[in-house]
Amino acid sequence: xxxxxVSHLLGIKYLKNEDLELIFETATHFKEVINRPxxxxxxxxxxTIANLFFENSTRTKLSFELAEKRLSxxxxxxxxxxxxxxxxxxxxxxxxxxxxMKVDMVVMRHPHPGAAHFLSNRVNSxxxxxxxxxxxxxxxxxxDAFSLLGKFGDLAGKRIAIVGDILHSRxxxxxxxxLKMLGAxxxxxxxxxxxxxxxxxxxxxxxxxxxxxxxxxxxxxMLRVQNERMDLNYFPSxxxxxxxFGLTRERLLPLRKEIVVLHPGPINRGVEISSEIxxxxxxxxxxxxxxxxxxxxxxxxxxxxxLNSTIx
Length: 312
Fold this sequence. Notes:
Blueprint: H1 17-34, E1 48-53, H2 59-70, E2 74-79, H3 91-99, E3 105-110, H4 115-120, E4 126-132, H5 138-152, E5 159-163, H6 170-181, E6 185-189, E7 205-207, H7 210-216, E8 219-222, H8 238-245, H9 249-252, E9 260-262, H10 275-278, H11 285-307
Helix pairs in contact: 1-11, 2-11, 5-6, 5-11
């Protein structure tokens, strides 16, 4: 059986091209499984997985939990708001107490960049990064790339734009790593105030002109403005942001092509994307949600296989 080159999923930058190919191949199999009348497989019936979410989440948490249950794993859900973290307990102590209950894998979202990497060096368990601050969100990038592969077949030479709040986005960084590995050309487009200072070092093009970016790209990933991470005013108003960087039918009509539209969610309808476009046939947002379960099943299965060679 093929195996991943890593024992944890901490970020896309730690993966090899062969890892991406294996994850996509495995996800294709699991996508068939979850579209059957009986959607569960007994692959991980001896594995216990803890979902540790130190930040609020709906889609990612539900997607991971469903993926785990589809694989027949035992699932333990943890919310920081209802835990001893509120009493001052450290991250390491919290996780070690959970691992003492004989947990095999930890899926963790944390507000601090590098938290998953920190934990992987200090506890004896497989760690899956479900988002660490403004750093990485590897499973989201994998499902985005998998969704694009479903539309294009191959991403080599494809032009992909990532538009919106690049500065505060963990999705953007992971997507850049994954898309570049798959041979795509990437442009990031945002107001200057929402562009990280050294983003060009990642080999991407930079634009502040949304119309020109739309003319250039084959697909566009519209990012949410992450107001909860902002301690400053990065643009004059939501209305002005939407006028300059909101994806609408009026912006797409002059183009002599149909662009594939993605969005990692949650959507601020009428801000970064209009309802008309979000619900249109060229948007693959619901495909992303479906593919997210298959991708996360693949990630969990492949990492669990390294823990237990008897998994079939």
